[in-house]
Amino acid sequence: MSLPTYAIQFRGHPACPCQVEWLPAFEAEAQRRGFITGPLPIAQLIGGAVTSGGTHATGGAADFWPHGDVAQVVWLARQMGADATWHRWFNWDGHNGSEHIHSVLTGCIHNGAARYQIDKVRAGLNGLANDHKDDGPRPLSGRTWKQGIEWAEEQDMASEETINAIAAEVVRQLTDGKPDNSDLTRDQLWKQTQGAADEARDLLRAQQ
């Protein structure tokens, strides 16, 4: 297939400018939350795979190989402006189609070939020709891909602000010489605080 004039190479795959901006942000947020380790395993961005039915012809649509916590990756993609994201299980097309995650960016000006799938998911459907019920996480976020990046940045900032507030209170108590309502020494409290901070950070990320 011939590529659109706006196509940009992204990690060995032709992509639209929206994908080039969104994918690193999505990957970073998935890594920060512990949903994936390492880079996103990209199967297809702009492309002409026969089984894709033309949805990848113009941009905005992406396929990833299953990696990490797939259910959470699908949830995160929907939160970050790709409501039309699904886990396609093996044989999803009835012809031994490979297992993968399929995703379409909302608000991408290049997603014309796949835009109908955004309408499908909003109607509660799975984006396939069989029009089965959507099996992904709901409610939908309704965000565009740009709003999704902003949302992820806000989540990261909220986590750090909470942790910093806890740390500031501990520092205040330590500098007072004796922790409030505690018989622990300063060194004992400091050791416990470091462990508690790690646990708090993991808990906050899991709850977002």
Describe this structure in words.
The protein has 208 residues and is an alpha+beta fold. It folds into 2 domains: 8-143, no CATH class; 148-207. 42% of the residues lie in helices and 11% in strands. The chain is built from 5 helices and 6 strands. The chain has helices at 17-32, 70-79, 115-122, 145-175, 186-207; strands spanning 8-10, 13-15, 42-44, 61-64, 84-88, 100-104. Strands 3-4-6-5 form a 4-stranded antiparallel sheet, with helices on both faces. The protein has a two-stranded antiparallel sheet with strand order 1-2. The longest helix is centred in the C-terminal third of the chain and has 31 residues, at 145-175. The radius of gyration is 21 Å and the shape is elongated. The mean pLDDT is 88.
Q: What's the gist of this structure?
A:
By secondary structure, the chain is of the alpha+beta class.
Write the layout of secondary structure elements.
Layout: E1 8-10, E2 13-15, H1 17-32, E3 42-44, E4 61-64, H2 70-79, E5 84-88, E6 100-104, H3 115-122, H4 145-175, H5 186-207
Antiparallel strand pairs: 1-2, 3-4, 4-6, 5-6
Helix pairs in contact: 1-4, 4-5
Considering the chains and any ligands shown, give keywords for the structure.
2 domains, elongated, 208 residues, two-stranded antiparallel sheet, 5 helices
Overall shape: it is: elongated
Work out the helix count: 5
Briefly note the structural class of the backbone.
Answer: alpha+beta
SSE pattern, N- to C-terminal? EEHEEHEEHHH
Going across the major beta sheet, what is the strand order?
3-4-6-5
**What is the end-to-end distance?**
41 Å
Number of domains: 2
Largest sheet, described in full?
Answer: 4 strands, antiparallel
Mean pLDDT: 88
Rounded to the nearest angstrom, the radius of gyration is 21 Å
**Strand percentage, roughly?**
5-15%
How many E strands? 6
Could you estimate the helical fraction of the residues in percent?
Answer: 40-55%
Low-confidence stretches: none
